[in-house]
Design goal:
- By secondary structure, the chain is an alpha+beta fold.
- The chain is about 25% helix and about 50% strand.
- It has helices at about 5-15, 55-60, 60-75, 145-155, and strands at about 20-30, 30-40, 45-55, 85-90, 95-100, 105, 110-115, 120-130, 135-140, 140-145.
- Strands 1, 2, 3, 4, 5, 6, 7, 8, 9 and 10 form a ten-stranded antiparallel β-sheet that branches.
- The longest helix has 14 residues, at about 60-75.
- The chain starts with a helix and ends with a helix.
């Protein structure tokens, strides 16, 4: 069974509506998906961290990590803000991507951060940054359809 279908089954098996820590942990053909959910209902879910580990990317060089980051940047056009690479660390073999532009509401800035690492990890986290107070992990709220599309796009980019 493809990773997306496994995650869809795992998501469907969770009680809905439900709040509190829940975890989805599924694997398929060299890919491991992990997500910490905070809430779920019939329409959507909220998560803190969305992560895909890819065996294929563990052996990748910087060019391949940049290719994956570019592929994700093209695919993830349906999130609240577009995501673009903002920094590349050739020594650590990491590409950092963020919402460009981030959402602003008064003194608060909200944005997605996606890291593509040579270790084979692709992770997506939403942050809130209050002026002068630093940043904190924020819940990302998405529909079930968007959640599964993220799984599909992360998986496809890492192949």
């Amino acid at each position: 069974m493809a990773l997306e279908q496994q995650v869809q089954s795992a998501l469907a098996s969770l009680p809905s509506p439900s709040t509190g820590p829940m975890r989805i942990d599924e694997s398929s053909t060299g890919q491991q998906f992990e997500c910490d959910l905070s809430a779920i209902d019939s329409l959507g879910c909220s998560f803190e961290r969305f992560t895909l580990h890819s065996d294929r990317l563990r052996a990748a060089g910087m060019d391949e990590v940049q290719r994956v980051a570019g592929e994700l940047s093209k695919r993830l056009t349906y999130l609240l803000e577009p995501i673009q690479p903002i920094e590349t660390d050739s020594q650590q073999c990491v590409v950092q991507m963020r919402s460009v532009p981030p959402a602003k509401d008064g003194d608060r800035t909200s944005y997605y951060e996606l890291l593509a690492r040579k270790t084979g990890e692709l992770s997506l986290v939403r942050y809130n940054a209050d002026y002068g107070a630093g940043r904190q992990v924020a819940l990302a709220h998405v529909t079930r359809e968007v959640f599964l599309r993220l799984v599909r796009d992360f998986s496809a980019a890492a192949q």
